[in-house]
Amino acid sequence: MTEDFLKQLLQPLRRIEPEQTFIAASKARILLATQEPPMNMLSSRLRIRFFESLTLTGAIALASFLILIAFGSISYLSGGGATLATSFNNDALISEAQSTDFQLQIKAVTYFDESAKQVAMALDKITQPNAQDPKK
């Protein structure tokens, strides 16, 4: 008896429909709402958060870095890499080292060695008379 009574009570409620203005406003609100990425897709969340957090300074730094990579690769591919590769040639480095004159550097080392000895002897002469004869 209560089940039939509830069916009779709820039967008129089935015919209730919302107003057209409410339907239009609800559809507009739903369509204008921001869409959140699915919570189970980590890569899509990270990608979206990366671009959201990109500030003007970060954007300029990223663009500068990409331009640097682009120009570097262009110069390397246009033949700049060949000169870099020749600087690592062992035979060329050995021949350059053999042809360099090291005499000037050796002379400078011997000069500094001799001057250090002379300074040491002068300091010994200054301190020796005082050490032997504290008061005359």
How would you describe what is shown here?
The protein is an all-alpha fold and 136 residues long. It folds into two domains: 2-100, no CATH class; 101-131. The protein is built from six helices and no strands. The N and C termini lie far apart (139 Å). The relative contact order is 0.03.
Please give the radius of gyration in angstroms.
44 Å
H/E series, N to C?
A: HHHHHH
Q: In DSSP terms, counting alpha (H) and pi (I) runs of 4 or more, how many helices?
A: 6
Helix content: over 70%
Strand share of the residues?
Answer: under 5%
Total beta-strand segments: 0
Distance between the termini: 139 Å
| Computed structural class | mainly alpha
Low-confidence stretches: none
* Mean pLDDT reading: 76
Count of individual domains: 2
Largest sheet: none
- Tell me, what's the shape? elongated
Structural features:
mainly alpha; elongated; 2 domains; 136 residues; 6 helices
Can you describe this structure in just a few lines?
The protein has about 140 residues and is mostly helical.
